[in-house]
Amino acid sequence: MFLQIQFESEIPIYQQIKNQIIRGIALGELELGEDLPSVRQLAADIGINFHTVNKVYNQLKQEGWVVIHRKSGVMVNPDLKPEKTPEYMESLEELLKITTAEAYLRGLEKKEFIALIEKNYESYKSQEGE
Amino acid sequence: MFLFTFLLNLFTVYIPLLLIGFFMPNFTKKTLLFGIVIPEEVSKNEEVIKLEKIYKRNYGLSAVLVSVVINIISIKTQNVHLLSWGIMILILIMTANYVYVHNKAKLLKKEKGWTIDKKQVVVVNTSHHHKQSYLSPHWFWIPISIMLFTFVFTMIQYPHLPEEIPIRFDYSGEAIGYSTKSFFSGFGLPLTQLGITILFYFIYRMIKGVKPSIQASRPKVSLQQNQIAKYYWAIYLLGTLVVLQLHFSYIQLNVLQVINPAAPVNLLIHAFAIAIPMLGAILVAVKTGQSGSRIKVELSEEADTNVIDREDDRFWKWGMFYYNPEDPSLMIEKRFGIGWTINCGRPIGMAITIIILVVLVGGLVLPRVLGGN
Predict the structure, then answer these.
(1) Do A92 and A114 have their domain in common?
(2) Do A51 and A69 sit in the same domain of this protein?
(3) Which of A100, B23, B222, B331 could form a disulfide with B215 if both were Cys (CB 3.0 to 4.6 A apart)?
(4) How far separated are the first and last CA of chain B, in Å rounded?
(5) Are A18 and A70 in a shared domain?
């Protein structure tokens, strides 16, 4: 899969990489057990510091999205089974509070907002059938 | 003898350099205008085409004029050294012409605001195992066996060699320099063959590892073009290595006095050994273009006009030297022209650049100083 990094963005680079990898897994662009580039390779390809990539991989590992082997490198967790933990639900609600508040104030209707969510969910689901 | 050196310089250096410099804008990517990042769709704009015309006019006039003058003076004075200095002068003229239009392109982009409403992105590919096949390293057994053959043959012949062996030859194949028989005079050439084999293998690995320059608006097509271009260059590298090995082995057979070819045959062999790598490089360059942009691929991909390659113009000093300490890669694709260059922002990169400059300048100046002529 392709990662698209924006250097001038407000979102920090490590967050962009992390978001795109998780979305890549959901979209099926990254398969379970698929190899990811090494820290060195990815840092050199993007043209950023090793530490930034290290940070991404460590966070992804802590959250269970990837596994890191000393020899075979980094890969998407082959036994990926993320769960709806209470902690996750809490943070999701926090996130939605801010997102919906801004959308509401900007005049976005509830329907429009739900349509957006549905569109995204459809793109994840369409991968399951394949 | 002057005539041969003159013709060799004319056909393998002067004429190719003139043509390469003149047609270079046709081989560069559409997203780079003389080393300045631009959106693909403006590459057909009037101002862009005008700038290319200015470059071709300036370069054509200045380079042809200087080459003609240098070549005429060297014929009049029968001076071979002038021809090699002339190459440096020609390269300086190429550089000056490029820097001039590079700065013009920078101003033009600023004035037109081509990139203001574009999202600047760097695209990277995570699926390295899907890589297009690269040339197998096993092909290196061909040049290695030529080298081994020369080694073994030299070992067999060495005891039978006379006390004085020829080590330098002129173009007609006559020995002009002798040396007492020793390990280095006997095995000098096979050792050089070993050296270039290691060097070429190193470059082969380097080309494989260098990061692909993926065009943000057409990531799939540009990635594939990049990989095919690398493959072609690897084949070229191997072919050149084989020619060099054969050439060295041939000279070694002369040293060992196993063969003593007639002057025309000898001339022809030397000419081929120089011309084949030269013409090969031009052929591959015409075929691939910068980062493979001239290669036709079967994939079709709609260009995304909202994005543009990251504006990294500021890391390219005079649009030629890459200086970016934040970027961990040592090698990077050239900005103008075809091939790869060094990231001077890395300590090793800076060291290599300085060494190359010292060797280049030293190679030209030292013989003058020491020789006194």
Answers:
(1) yes
(2) yes
(3) B222
(4) 20
(5) yes
- Which of A66, A57, A64, A77 shows the shortest CA–CA distance to A14? A57
A39 belongs to a structural domain: yes
Chain A, chain B: beta-carbon pairs less than 8 Å apart: 69
A95 plus A120 within the same structural domain: yes
B9-44 pLDDT, tens digit per residue, is 888 889 988 998 999 998 999 899 999 999 988 888
Q: How many helices (H) and strands (E) does chain A have?
A: 5, 3
HEC letters along B8-55:
HHHHHHHHHHHHHHHHHHHHCCCCEECCEECCHHHHHCHHHHHHHHHH
HSE-CB of B255 using CA atoms within 13 angstroms: 28
Looking at the domain assignment, is residue A58 inside a domain?
yes
Q: Are residues A69 and A34 in the same domain?
A: yes
Domain count, chain A: 2
Average pLDDT (B57-78) is 92
Nearest neighbour of A46 by CB, restricted to B124, B127, B129: B124
All residues of chain B having their beta carbon less than 8 Å from the beta carbon of residue A6 are: 119-121
Least confident of A98-107, B99-108, B184-193: B184-193
Q: Which residues of B touch A65 (CB under 8 A)?
A: none
d(CA B245, CA B140): 12
Q: Is A72 found in the same domain as A106?
A: no
Can you give the pLDDT at residue A130? 44
CB atoms within 10 A of CB B122: 20
Model confidence at B136: pLDDT above 70? yes
The single residue listed with the structure tokens 């999701």 is: A92
Residue A89 near chain B (CB below 8 Å): no
Which ranges in chain B belong to alpha helices (H)? 2-9, 15-27, 46-77, 80-112, 141-157, 183-209, 219-255, 263-288, 347-371
Contact B361, A81 (CB under 8 A): no
Beta bridge partners of A67: A75
Which residues 6+ apart lie within 8 Å of B257 measured at CB?
A: B161, B165, B166
Q: What is the CATH number of the domain that holds A28?
A: 1.10.10.10
